[in-house]
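Whether sequence alone determines local backbone shape is best considered at the level of individual chains. We regard such an encoding as a compact summary of how the chain folds. The sequence in question and its structure tokens are set out directly beneath this paragraph.
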Amino acid sequence: MIGWNAAYLAINVFHIALLMMDKITINLPRETVRIYHKYFSTLSTREFKRLIMSNGFSIFQDQNIINQSDVPDRLYIVLRGNVEIIKNDETIATLKAGDFIGEMSFLSKEAASANAYADNLVQCAYWTHDDLERLKQKNLDAYDKFIAIIGRDLVRKLNYKNERRLDQMTQLDFVV
């Protein structure tokens, strides 16, 4: 009986230690602090660091990151630099640090509707479908939070697009 109680106690102490470590704030790399506070604050700093630092990084310079009509196999997030979203030779948006690139195409596994062009030097972190599946298997809570963050990013971009469209409308458009 004493042995079983000791085993239960050891298991509970171990899990409490894991929970406490997950809640302790850790220092983030300087370039990711603003991104964390602006977009990823629903994750603990430890979850955020694991999410960003455990995956691949790419650097682009004056080149397309995603080509229109290609199905992207990676979900990118801008860490440094600006990315121009170009459709029909017109820049329709500029993405900055913390913005996802090609999230709709990546999640839907459909062709991209525009080019994502690295304006000068751009550093990105990325995830593949396998990376997200591993995250889902290992830490469902962090996966759910990450999907919610992507959803909020999409809503923010759609709101921006709608506001821009309203600004371009004339008074005559509202009469019709």
About this structure: The chain has a mean pLDDT of 85. DSSP finds seven helices and six strands in the chain.
